[in-house]
Amino acid sequence: MPELPEVETVVRGLSRHIVGQKIKQVKILSARSTLGFTPAKRQGLRGASIKNITRRGKGIIVSLAKQPATARSAGGSDLSLLIHLKMTGQLIYIPHSRHAELVSASKTKILKQVRGDKLEKGRLNYGHPDKNFIETMPSRHTRVWFELSKGNLYFNDQRRFGWVKLTPTAEVPNDKFFSNLGMEPFDKNFTPAFLYSAIQRRPKSNIKTIILDQSLVTGIGNIYSDEALFYAGIKPTRLGKSITKADTTKLVSAIKKVLEKGIKYMGTSVNTHRTPEGAMGQMQNYLVAYDRKDLPCRKRCGSTIKKIRLNGRGTHYCPICQK
DNA sequence: TGCCCCCTGCAG
DNA sequence: CTGCAGGGGGCA
């Protein structure tokens, strides 16, 4: 699912719901979705409390504070949970207070709406006719199940590309994934001058590939790169050496604009993205390029959006408005 | 710096 | 059935 706006939506939602709660137990339902859950670290996890939740690029950092008793006896550093949702990851939080209600609501809806052959017990609403429908958790795609003091947090991931890593907080800066990330798009240093000089270093790459490079600027993925290039009026296939300073100025504002818009609408739910409450984002209703193959250009230029393949990624653009 | 791959499910 | 999907790691 997730690019910066989707991850930011998840982080903000979780921050509201689970900061301050204690971790009572962690159940790993899919070992390959986890890293670093050694017996020693798992011991340190029990009773730890959730201090804060932050985003870096498309990655999530859940910082924990040790349980006082463990801190006294075991020593060692505080732990962090590092989470990447990759293509289909979800983090769904269901407070104890809402669980029974959801189970009962889901039974009613199952009887009313779901074709028998489509129903699989405990499945999230992926593919369900009612897009706001949540079945009971854990679902068949739940990979890690966190029992917290006031509710349950489920890491769901249909394709199992995502991961949950357990790492000492002091080691997070050295993490393979996080240490390779470039500039945050909302950092004050993400300027046209910065992007322009980076683009100059890659004269033979196309501009879409350049802005997808997470080691340069982090958080832009396939949806928001197409969106930003549309607003900037730049064809995704343009080579780095052809990009002017004026293009770069437009592109930097377009990137910030589309990411802000994505956050405002709580992300794009063309597929599996959900907020921690299980609701869909709404940004799919405001896309101008991505997922609009053969639909009219929203600038009313009279053309339709074309879809091509660029470095193996589906790429959408307006042949008239983007030069 | 591009390609294949990881995996699962859906649309055509 | 084939191809494709919000990502990114490893490999020429």
TrEMBL record:
Domain (FPG-type) ranges: 288-323
Catalytic activity of the protein: 2'-deoxyribonucleotide-(2'-deoxyribose 5'-phosphate)-2'-deoxyribonucleotide-DNA = a 3'-end 2'-deoxyribonucleotide-(2,3-dehydro-2,3-deoxyribose 5'-phosphate)-DNA + a 5'-end 5'-phospho-2'-deoxyribonucleoside-DNA + H(+); Hydrolysis of DNA containing ring-opened 7-methylguanine residues, releasing 2,6-diamino-4-hydroxy-5-(N-methyl)formamidopyrimidine
Pfam family, one: H2TH
Cofactor(s) it depends on: Zn(2+)
A single BP term in Gene Ontology: base-excision repair
Gene Ontology molecular-function annotations: 8-oxo-7,8-dihydroguanine DNA N-glycosylase activity; class I DNA-(apurinic or apyrimidinic site) endonuclease activity; damaged DNA binding; zinc ion binding
Residue ranges annotated for the Formamidopyrimidine-DNA glycosylase catalytic domain, each copy included: 2-162
Keywords: DNA damage, DNA repair, DNA-binding, Glycosidase, Hydrolase, Lyase, Metal-binding, Multifunctional enzyme, Zinc, Zinc-finger
PROSITE patterns, A to Z: FPG_CAT, ZF_FPG_1, ZF_FPG_2
Organism domain of life: Bacteria
Assembly description: Monomer.
Protein family per UniProt: Belongs to the FPG family.
Protein's name in the database: Uncharacterized protein
Organism field: candidate division Kazan bacterium RIFCSPLOWO2_01_FULL_45_19
Taxon lineage: Bacteria, Bacteria division Kazan-3B-28
